[in-house]
Amino acid sequence: MTLGWYLAVSAIIFSIGVGGVLVRRNPLVILLCLELMLNAGNLALVTFARMHGGEGGQIFALIVMVVAACEVTVGLGMIVAISRRNLPVDVDELHELNG
Amino acid sequence: MSDVLFFLAAIAAIIGAVGVVAARNPFYAVLALVCHLVSLAALFLLLRAEFVAAAQVVVYAGAVMVLYVFVVAYVGGAEEIRSGNTMRILGPLFAAAVAIELCIALLGSALSGINSQGAPYKLGFGTPAQIGKLFLTDYLFAFEVASLLLLVAAIGAIVLARRRRGLEDDDGSIARVIGERRPSYTGTMAEGAGTRQVYQAIEASRGGGGSFEVGGAEPTERAPAVTASEDAEPPAAVAAGEGEEAGA
Predict the structure, then answer these.
(1) Closest residue by Cα to residue A44 from B16, B120, B43
(2) Which stretches of chain B score pLDDT less than 50?
């Protein structure tokens, strides 16, 4: 399998994630779609590492995993705080900072 | 063989991704993401990234998804109101435009490695030993920053999601708790040790030792505490006075 196929799969997964972030309104599902986009980036990074023959891309993918875990932790904490205050779990309704 | 594996894993990954976006119930979306992540780990294995694949399965599909499942169970899979018509039409259109643009940019680029099988394989490429050696030599700073970032994220999540006390019980609750009557041994080693002998020694030194029955008919642990709280009026008053001083 040539490496272009992997890059094509990565592009398709990334655009599915983009569409999910635009269409869905539940912040939980939006976080899941962000995970999709980060994983598509990871696949591209690992593919480029294989193309280049060095492990730098794999290290980069692992750091992206760490950042994704941090983002998930903080995002889920915010969602728990939102649902504790009985606010609607919906990104269109949460516009308190709107003025 | 590797072609078959690639197509199986790629199709499973794309189906999982579509399932994440399309599932109405967030719980099914999380399960679809687990399927997506596992098939992505298979793709990583095909790319000879063994350690990344293992970390993907253990960290992502294991730990992070468990966190998601807990939060979905906490928040509840409320039926989502579908988004407005403009976004329902524009969103997929924009996503398709992004997909076409990315495919043109990636596959139409002049990268010489696009149509190859990759660089020649060298022994130990992508193994945990190699990754660990790189993390502790060339990429040490990124490694340390990642650990600090994880710590900050954990503390931030605790601060964000903790149970906040409202304004309803700010009527001097700390002073009230401090001012309450307590047994005389509160705050001493005897409270932690919890032995009857220590209680008896303290009460005897305060002059109230006669109220205990050493080796009595009911050698329960609760009896001395109750007796102490009843008998220890003057020391408790002293303790309350000290507590008020501390509170003030």
Answers:
(1) B43
(2) 167-168, 212-223, 225-233, 235-248
The full set of domains in chain A, from first to last, is: 3-84 (1.10.287.3510)
Say if the Cβ atoms of A50 and B118 lie within 8 Å.
Answer: yes
Prediction ipTM score: 0.92
Q: Which residues contact B183 (CB under 8 A, 6 or more apart)?
A: B225, B228, B229, B232, B236
Closest CA of chain B from A99, distance in Å: 23
CA distance linking residue A46 with residue A62, whole number of Å = 10
Q: How many helices (H) and strands (E) does chain A have?
A: 3, 0
B 158-217 → A contacts, CB under 8 A? 158-161, 163
Chain segment B15-50, per-residue pLDDT in tens: 999 999 988 888 999 999 999 999 999 999 999 999
pTM of the model: 0.73
Which candidate from A23, A47, A49 shows the least CB-CB separation from B83?
A23
- Which amino acid belongs to residue A80? V
Count of C-beta atoms within a 10 Å radius of residue A81: 17
Q: Which of A12, A26, A65 sits opposite B99 (nearest CB)?
A: A12
pLDDT attached to residue B245: 47
B103 touches chain A (CB under 8 A): yes
